[in-house]
Design brief:
heterodimer, A: 780 residues, 37 helices, 11 strands, 5% strand, DAD/Ost2 (chain B)
């Protein structure tokens, strides 16, 4: 009789030890997630990367300098000249408010970190939080062992690292944490049925809406899961408590954010949640009536209600469908439609189609971004089905939908990463527990089912023999899960230990050596995963893209800092009010670093304005000068990679300028710039191509560099080598010719030679003549 | 056919009424509160149909506050109902405290959104 007591004491001691160990493991996972993202800071410097983060950085600077009321009401006149942009109403404030709060707290504690430092390191900190949130989520689905594995996997998964490296100050940095945390609170509410967690769930959803436009994924996935539960007969009152308050509170909170506003009730992205809200009320009511009536009466009620209710339902649905179908996009926004129909953007919205992040991913990118998890996910899906609970059905639905969306857009691989980590964590944990249990079983032979039942006193002696680092986790896994199992058994089925032991005995028929070998192989798999992730973080995803490096033949490092050189020149050598025109990629960086007004930037909200700039770049010099002069532009900036071999320059992007410009102004036709369907800039190029502004501004004086004008990116000599610019003058070219800045020449005071007749008489006749022949050019 | 359906309907109605009369008074109070909230929401919708939907945020916050308290009261009823096996470990004070907290958050948001 003393034996069960001792066993119980040992159980609680092991349980406590397991808890402390898992706490330290979690701490280490957080530190790992933080440190693996610091490669770019070590290799380059603590600088903000890419393009979009510069806008967020500028907004955060404004917030910290002027306070929240000015930030909320900010109208920015330094961009989209002459339209301006309402920043307060068009930006997702979550990221900037988070970083601003962190900066404010640190500064009030007298830790004087600059805004840039806070912005650079926000993403790694929140990725540590995200891995802890993954632990919580997976613990709710399967147990603490699976949670720890999933958290460790998420800390390192390359897909998430690519968007949250130190310096990548973008919405996804905090949004992924908000996503996982919202899902965790939803599952927790579903498992416990507590209204407290439902409130927290709504607040976490609010944080997600503030942070990222991808919140529509949550507000469509959760209703889908609720519908799945109802259809598969898993309706319970906990489901109602988990879902209904979320819809009401969530809609209200979403409407509070200015970017979303009334879209929260009027766009099709949210209609699924309202539909399922109605459905769950109907189902709840049906279950309630079923509960209080006798079965015969219930049948009568059903026949009565079905006959009447069906007619009413059909009428309402017909009205709704008519309303939605009457709008041309069926109420969906362009971005959502391009997700649902992958070919939509390429047909109708060339701007969305032109962004490289919006292209579908290639097969190798799956292996690059989630590596080993790609084939652990199916094992995890199977493990979720034994047994199937509400939480595991949710995770299965999550992974299926995220795999579909990641197939549409490369950028959405990021949403796949947490799901893949959860599934792989479950798979790894389950397989480890099977192997360790069979090892335990084999070592103790068939002596007594009681030892298998309580499990813990024996597990410590067995598992202590393993000495790999990962074995710490298996020890933890083996301790946590059997201890949980034993607690459950004590509460419930105390009278069936023999049956359970028989079932367990049938499970653990794996031979001893095979289990040891399998565990070693799994550890090796994990090692390969770690090696790949560290390599991806260090080599592939840590480039700040504003500073480029290359290695020369003698092994020395060569740094290309041309972008910052150009922006610094602009900020020191031009007037504060001068307008700079460039392609929209560089808009955010120009306003943030050069502090000059730009015509178009990365927000791409006004297609016509971008098409205007695209048309100007595609037109001959005089026409382009007219367009730019009408926009008050003083300087034009082009990026040129031909001297050093930088492939993402404006000449490579030029066809998109033609397409976007031609989409709005029909006198720009793409075939005019192609010779036999091929895009060339050498001597075989079309005259339209050789005369357009982009060609001239990129290759002006290029022949002086090596005598023949050899373009290293296109690998040919250029077509037109010696030409002069008539309406523009070159004012600055950076060290490696990567950024070239030109100034618009003022119009001449005197016109030599033939004087122009007054415009009104000739223009009417020429206009009619010209319109008959060609499409009208709006600037002539 | 019609008479059998009407007799069925009557029998159904009577059995519903007798089953409902058996519920405890506290639950009936919650049901009354839910009915009141839904009724208020309906009145607001009718008013909006008559007068027009400007300012839309006030209309939204008004209707959603009624619907929200109704939903939360239903959740409270679920948790407090003694016949519900899933919640027999939950003390009703805890259920009521959760209800109050959620209502607090809801009305904070409503106040902010009312405009």
């Amino acid at each position: 009789m003393a034996d069960p007591e001792n066993a119980k004491e040992a159980t609680t001691l092991r349980y406590a030890f397991g808890n402390v160990l898992s706490f330290f493991i979690l701490l280490l996972i957080g530190v790992l997630a933080f440190w693996i993202r610091l490669f770019s800071v070590i290799k380059y410097e603590s600088v903000i990367h890419e393009f979009d983060p510069y806008f967020n950085y500028r907004v955060t600077q404004f917030l910290t300098k002027n306070g929240i009321y000015d930030f909320w009401n900010w109208f920015d006149d330094r961009t989209w000249y002459p339209l301006g942009r309402v920043i307060g109403g068009t930006v997702y404030p979550g990221l900037t408010l988070t970083a601003g709060t962190i900066w404010w707290i640190l500064n009030s504690l007298n830790i004087p970190l600059s805004v840039e430092t806070v912005c650079v390191f926000t993403a790694p900190i929140f990725s540590a939080f995200a891995s802890w949130a993954t632990y919580l989520l997976t613990k709710e689905v399967k147990g603490a062992g699976a949670g720890l594995t999933a958290a460790a996997l998420l800390a390192m998964v390359p897909s998430y690292i690519s968007r949250s490296v130190a310096g990548s100050y973008d919405n996804e940095a905090v949004a992924i944490f908000a996503l996982i945390f919202t899902f965790y609170l939803y599952i927790k509410t579903l498992n416990t049925g507590s209204l407290f967690y439902a409130t927290l769930n709504a607040l976490a959803y609010f944080y997600m809406v503030c942070s990222w436009g991808g919140y529509t994924f949550i507000i469509n996935l959760i209703p889908m899961h609720v519908l799945l539960c109802i259809v598969t007969g898993r309706y319970s009152s906990r489901l109602y408590i988990a879902y209904a308050p979320l819809v009401v509170l969530g809609t209200l909170l979403a409407a509070l954010v200015p970017v979303v506003g009334f879209n929260a009730v009027m766009t099709s992205e949210h209609f699924a949640s309202f539909l399922v809200f109605i459905i769950i009320h109907v189902v709840a009511f049906v279950y309630y009536i079923k509960g209080i009536l006798s079965p015969k009466m219930f049948k009568v009620a059903v026949t009565l209600v079905v006959s009447v209710g069906l007619v009413v339902c059909c009428a309402v649905m017909a009205i709704l469908i008519a309303l939605v179908a009457s709008s041309p996009t069926k109420g969906w926004s362009g971005r959502s439609l391009s997700l649902l129909d992958p070919t939509y953007a390429s047909k109708y919205i060339p701007i969305i189609a032109s962004v490289s992040e919006h292209q579908p991913p290639t097969w190798p990118s799956y292996f690059m971004d989630i590596n080993v998890l790609a084939f652990l996910v199916p094992a995890g899906i199977i493990a979720c089905f034994l047994p199937l609970s509400d939480a595991s059905s949710f995770v299965v639905l999550y992974i299926v939908t995220s795999v579909y969306f990641s197939g549409v857009m490369v950028r959405l691989m990021l949403v796949l990463a947490p799901a893949a980590c959860v599934m792989s964590g479950i798979a790894l944990s389950e397989s480890f527990s099977v192997f360790t249990r069979s090892i335990k079983f084999q070592l103790h032979g068939l002596s007594g089912s009681s030892q298998v039942d309580s499990g813990d006193a024996s597990s410590s002696t067995v598992v202590a023999q393993n000495d790999a680092g990962k074995a710490e986790k298996t020890e933890d896994t083996a301790k946590e899960r059997p201890s949980k199992k034993s607690k459950k058994k004590e509460k419930g089925i105390v009278d069936k230990p023999s049956l359970k032991a028989k079932i367990e005995r049938r499970l653990l028929v794996l031979p001893f050596e095979a289990s040891i070998f399998a565990i070693l192989l799994l550890v090796l798999l994990g090692a390969f995963y770690v090696v790949h992730c560290v390599w991806a973080a260090a080599e592939a995803y840590s480039a700040p893209s504003i500073v480029l490096t290359s290695y020369s033949h003698d092994g020395g490092l060569h740094v290309f800092d041309d972008f910052r050189e150009a922006y610094a020149w602009l900020s020191h050598n031009t007037e504060v009010d001068d307008k700079v025109a460039s392609w929209w990629d560089y808009g955010y960086q120009t306003t943030a670093m050069a502090n000059r007004t730009v015509i178009v930037d990365n927000n791409t909200w006004n297609n016509t304005h971008i098409a205007t700039v695209g048309t100007a770049m595609s037109s001959p010099e005089k026409a382009a000068w007219e367009i730019f002069n009408s926009l008050d532009v003083k300087y034009v900036l082009v990026v040129f990679g031909g001297l050093v071999g930088y492939p993402s320059d404006d000449i490579n992007k030029f066809l998109w300028m033609v397409r976007i410009g031609g989409g709005v102004f029909p006198h720009i036709k793409e075939p005019d710039y192609l010779r036999d369907g091929q895009y060339r800039i050498d001597s075989q190029a079309t005259p339209t191509m050789l005369n357009c502004l982009m060609y001239k501004l990129s290759y002006y004086r290029f022949v002086e560099t090596d005598g023949r004008g050899f373009d290293r990116v296109r690998q040919t000599e250029i077509g037109k080598k010696n030409f002069k610019l008539t309406h523009f003058e070159e004012v600055f070219t950076t060290h490696h010719w990567m950024v070239r800045i030109y100034k618009l020449k003022p119009p001449r005071n005197r016109i030599r030679g033939k004087t122009k007749k007054p415009r009104s008489k000739t223009s009417s006749t020429t206009r009619t003549k010209r319109s008959a022949a060609t499409k009208r050019n709006p600037w002539h | 056919m019609a008479r059998s359906t009407s007799k069925d309907a009557q029998a159904l109605f009577n059995s519903l009424r007798s089953a409902y009369a058996a519920t405890p008074t506290s639950l009936k109070i919650i049901d009354l509160y839910v009915g009141f909230a839904v009724f208020t929401a309906l009145i607001q919708v009718v008013y909006m149909a008559i007068v027009g939907s400007f300012p839309f945020n006030s209309f939204l916050s008004g209707v959603l506050s009624c619907v929200g308290t109704a939903v939360l009261a239903v959740c409270l009823r679920i948790q407090v109902n003694k016949e519900n096996k899933e919640f027999k470990d939950l003390p009703p004070e805890r259920a009521f405290a959760d209800f109050v907290l959620c209502n607090l958050v809801l009305h904070l948001v409503i106040m902010n959104f009312l405009g």
